[in-house]
Amino acid sequence: MAHWNSAVGAAQLARLLGSQHSVRRETPGAAARESSSPAGTAGTADVPGTAEASAATGVLGTGTAQATRRVPAYRSLAEGLRLLVLEGRIPVATRLPAERELAAALSVSRTTVAAAFEALRADGFLESRRGSGSWTTVPAGKPLPTRGLHPLPPENEGTVIDLGCAALPAQQLMGEVFQSALAALPPYAHTHGDYPAGLPVLREALADRYTALGVPTMPQQIMVTTGALGGVGALTRMLVPRGERIAVEHPSYANVLQLLRETGGRLVPVPMAGNLAGWDLPAWHRTLREAAPRLAYVVADFHNPTGALAGVEQRRELVAAARAAGTVLIADETMADLPLGPPGATGTPSTGSPGLEMPPPMASFDPGGSAVITVGSVSKSIWAGMRIGWIRAAPEIIRSLTAARAYVDLGSPVLEQLAVAELLNGAGWEQAVTERRVRARENREALTAALRDQLPDWEFTVPHGGLTLWVRTGGLSGSRIAEAGERLGVRVPSGPRFGVDGAFEGFVRLPFTIAEPLAREAASRLAAAADLVRSGAPTPSDLPRSYVA
């Protein structure tokens, strides 16, 4: 049985090592500019035109700082590979090229590569077996991305700034919406109240919404779920036997990664492209061809955590590739209603904001819903407290999901479904999401300005929508910053929460959920946490398990 899920070629690995070195040499202040860094990706970006020779130069440490320290060539190579694993550019369980092949690509001796591999094995980042080659790992005992922030207790709200949840509070409009829902409740109150597929009025409203977006949809193609996570869980249990491979973006949404693990899926990470450019399609083609995953989970619209937006041709190509491979795509549209426009944009943010035109839904490239199954929710665009989501798929899939729901939760709350239907069938939906976009954009500007001022060596690329900012923490451990921040009154989820088996140690995710002056205070506390980590002071290591929304 293979111990690896994917493989990386020698030339590709040389380019990754070379681009990693070029990013390290950036001046600290430049990284915080809007387009300064590929920190919105799964690691560092490829540098166009970087040849194997320059990659070898970067690996062997001929830069000034490394030359001053006189780092041995094999140790510099081992360190470069280790960082690629931790940053997610090389996923865990990826087979590396043979020693002789990699040595030729890097223009170094085979002895150097062999010594680097031996150092990585000793450090717990590589395993090897005769006949199977060498593949990447993480050290035994290294925390997996299941640790992080527990829900903030109400009594601590006045002292701790909670940046663990990427969701905004309810709007005043919600009171009126629920009053209307209560008025519509009596006919349903005379029934048993269990609607496994969802209330007909809401299914019809959601189908009409997809049709208006250019994706003809019947109510029979919709099932209402208890949040988007409820939909992903139902689909995974029905479509993927335990032990089957599931392809995921890397990084990806933390709660879905944990859900897929607990349902028995074998995760196959696929790196994101650089500079918020969406998916790395060559990597997707390789994964679909070589790993043959049964299922793939993607966030095309303002990806969580990076904020990347996949373009029209990317969507078309990935759907076609998945269909050819027999892989079912789950497209999570939770953030799709939150286009904010580029930084500094003025006016009311909308799908027609200056500099931003929203691509068509993923389902438009598979209207029947057999190859692309869409999952949506009101948690980000309206209010997470409603716990209403939905699935759009082929009618036969919806029938199977509905039948299976009898022994899960029987259905979603009736009153909340009526409230969502009230929003969709009136003017309330557009009013609510417009207000949400305005607030999220204001919060984005406040947070990024505070980070540039307080933490100029932290790197990020500002997304044009969504609620999340993916930040590289200036060479410091994101996990240690999260732990130190806990002591200083600010909670943040560290990068490994969003990776597979401990990747993205040098990142944190920050949400657009707080405005001035709280955003500046949060940045100040994070700067203090970074100083604490930089000083080497001990930080607590017994944080409880919980979720990141």
From TrEMBL:
Pfam families: Aminotran_1_2, GntR. The keyword Nucleus does not apply. Residues 19-49 are annotated as: Disordered. Residues 71-139 form the HTH gntR-type domain. Keywords: Aminotransferase, DNA-binding, Pyridoxal phosphate, Transcription, Transcription regulation, Transferase. One of its GO terms (molecular function) is transaminase activity. InterPro entries: Aminotransferase_I/II_large (IPR004839), HTH_trans_reg/aminotransferase (IPR051446), PyrdxlP-dep_Trfase (IPR015424), PyrdxlP-dep_Trfase_major (IPR015421), PyrdxlP-dep_Trfase_small (IPR015422), Tscrpt_reg_HTH_GntR (IPR000524), WH-like_DNA-bd_sf (IPR036388), WH_DNA-bd_sf (IPR036390). PROSITE patterns: HTH_GNTR. This is PLP-dependent aminotransferase family protein. It comes from Streptomyces smyrnaeus. The lineage of its organism: Bacteria, Bacillati, Actinomycetota, Actinomycetes, Kitasatosporales.
